[in-house]
Amino acid sequence: MSERSELRAHWTVVFAAAMGAAAGITGMSVYSLSILIGPLSEAFGWSRAEVSAAKTVLTAGFVLTGPLVGYLADRIGVRQIGIASLALLALGMFSMTLIGPSILGFYVALFLLAVAGCGTTALVWTRAVATWFDRSRGMALALTLTGPGLMGVVTPVLLDTLIQRYGWRAGYITMGVFALITLVPLVLFFRENRDDGRHGSTVAPTPRLQTGVTVKEAVRSRHFWQIGFSFLLIGGVVSALMVHLVPLIIDAGLGRGTAVRIAGVLGIAVIVGRMLTGYLVDRFHPPTVAAVFLFMPVFGCLLLIAGPESAGMIVLAVAFIGLAAGSEVDLVPYLTARYFGLKAYGRIYSWMFVAFYVGVGIGPLFLGWRYDLDGHYTRALEIVIPFLIVGVLAIATLGRPPESASRPVTAAP
After folding, report:
1. What is the mean pLDDT of residues 351-368?
2. Which of 236, 281, 363, 365 could form a disulfide with 138 if both were Cys (CB 3.0 to 4.6 A apart)?
3. Sequence spans of domains, the chain
């Protein structure tokens, strides 16, 4: 089947998965943190470091449950997991309106929210999509993960407007309602092409689920550790820049209104980054494509350190960050499938997911801590640049996928 034929035949699965990714715990809620830092600090007197730790706590919840989700995904499939977890996430968002002045209570509520939404991460959505695509897998995964990118365009202005008018609780209510609405396309269209023909499959079962390496073989390979290490570093830095984006722009010398509008550029850049990455990895050496996109935040950091000679320079800095953010989230599942196959995809990807989100959890906390220590972000940006460069080098030197990634599995995973 050609690339276009694959996309035409299975676009409804991609659409439903993209909606799930947008509404999930790593979608709209990620972009909301940059908007909520200020209002929550003002409402309860919390410091930026304390509010920034929200990302760390949130990440800890779904990272700790990631291996379990990966195991269940390989055993029972992801349709039930995704639908049930998104429903729980919606209820959790509504319950966040009840938090009070205790920072500890805020952290506990966030952790429970993450556990409730642990089945709404990219692990679930990409697992289903990968089973339907081969020749156009990169583009299909990119389209799936444009869902969160669209949230980056809509979330800053939408939530900031609602929060300024109705208070910070309006942000959580909005995210809860969106999660409930998203359940409709998931119930109708979201499914895997499983070997046993379940979940409404109307085509012949794919043999791709029977190809790849076992978990033990993956762990013994350098590719496993190299990919995980790279995205630990890159995920931490890019996440920190995203969560602190509005404060970073304000710190660079622009007003809050301008900063919020510029933050919307991030979502556009994320979408462009994902689409370009998805197109290019299907045609060129994936590590080279990855290295080019993932190096871009270095330029973004340098522009933010230099300060705004014009608002256009800050827009360019945000665009660099967004292109990398779009690329990295697309590349983690793509490289997992490419280097290890699909047989044990859920379990192998869950560990890549853990490595990535450990970085994602630490990065924003570090940036908030350095801001409280220095009173500005300049020193923090100078520190993170070398980490980005090391992460890019790890990806750039991956080499070609091993032949074992496309062979049938005969041993127990």
Report:
1. 84
2. 281
3. 3-406
Q: Around Cβ 383, how many Cβ atoms within 10 Å? A: 14
Distance CA 59, CA 64 (A): 8
Q: How far apart are CA 32 and CA 47, in angstroms?
A: 17
* C-alpha to C-alpha distance for 100 and 91, rounded to whole angstroms: 18
What average pLDDT does range 65-70 have in this prediction?
85
* 33-37, 168-172, 227-231, 405-409: the lowest-pLDDT one: 405-409
User: Is residue 4 predicted with pLDDT exceeding 80?
Assistant: no
Q: Which residues of 118-157 are buried (b: 16+ CB within 10 A; e: fewer)?
A: bbbbbbbbbbbbbbbbeebbbbbbbbbbbbbbbbbbebbe
Superfamily of domain 3-406: MFS general substrate transporter like domains (1.20.1250.20)
Residues present in the chain in total? 413
> Which of 281, 251, 46 is closest to 168 using CA atoms?
46
Spatial separation of the C-alpha atoms in residues 338 and 221, rounded to whole Å: 14
SS (H, E, C) 243-280: HCHHHHHHHCCCCHHHHHHHHHHHHHHHHHHHHHHHHH
Confidence (pLDDT) at 82? 94
| Confidence grade of residue 197 (pLDDT, cut at 50, 70, 90) | very low
Question: How many secondary structure helices (H) and strands (E) does the chain include?
Answer: 19, 0
Using CA atoms, how far apart are residues 309 and 323, in angstroms rounded to an integer? Answer: 22
Q: How confident is the model at residue 350 (pLDDT cuts 50, 70, 90)?
A: confident
Euclidean distance between CA atoms 349 and 121, whole angstroms: 11
Residue 20 in tokens: 């799930």
**Alpha carbon distance 355, 78 (integer Å):** 21
Mean pLDDT of the chain: 83
d(CA 146, CA 398): 26
- The model's confidence at residue 116, banded by pLDDT at 50, 70 and 90, is very high
pLDDT given for residue 172 in this prediction: 93
Max avg pLDDT among 36-50, 159-173, 357-371: 159-173
Using CA of residue 76, residue 278, residue 264, residue 248, what is the dihedral sign?
positive
Which letter, b or e, does each residue of 312-336 get, where b requires 16 or more Cβ atoms within 10 Å of its Cβ?
Answer: eebbbbbbbbbbbbbbbbbbbbbbb
DSSP 8-class letter at 212: B
d(CA 207, CA 204): 9
